[in-house]
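Listing S7. Sequence submitted for prediction.
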Amino acid sequence: MSPVTHFLSGWVLASAFSRQLGKAGKIIVVLASVAPDIDGLGIIPELLTRNSSHPLLWFSEYHHSLHNLAFALLCTVAAFLVLRNTTVNRWFAALMVFLSFHLHLLCDLVGARGPDGYQWPIPYLKPFSNSVQLTWSHQWILNGWQNFVITSILLFVALWIAWRRGESPLQFASERADRALTQALRTRFSR
């Protein structure tokens, strides 16, 4: 699925537990929902060097390399450590990070097939073993209508949360933009 879908799924999940997570915990849970795709940034050097004598195939060779249990555990431990000087329940936040990370894997498992029919397998036990490669034979294509529907539903839920609770996904970028959006939604769709 797209990074936008992963971000929204993590934000909606974290918003369900806003009180327990606080802002710091919520940010970390949302980051965990997009963290497995950090390896997707390899597309930039690959595109920049594709016509050179030594192209860097960082995306082609390494995308989905971080979609594994080891990286999930690393993110979970990192969240636990980062939140040590906060009032957030670190154990709960770490559990939510682990869950958010796996929500990303689930989304990719069901909806990330390439247009050529290639399924990026999820190397769940890598780097320790290549024995478990998660795939689903009914996986829909990345730009399939199913992904657009899921993204639209998540966007609708995010806007509903913004209208209802006064916090939107913009809260991480700008409190002012967050207030403006929630105010506009409340004005337009008054209770």
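Caption to Listing S7: primary sequence and predicted structure tokens for the chain studied. The chain has a mean pLDDT of 92. The helical segments are 3-15, 18-34, 43-49, 58-62, 69-82, 90-111, 145-165, 175-188.
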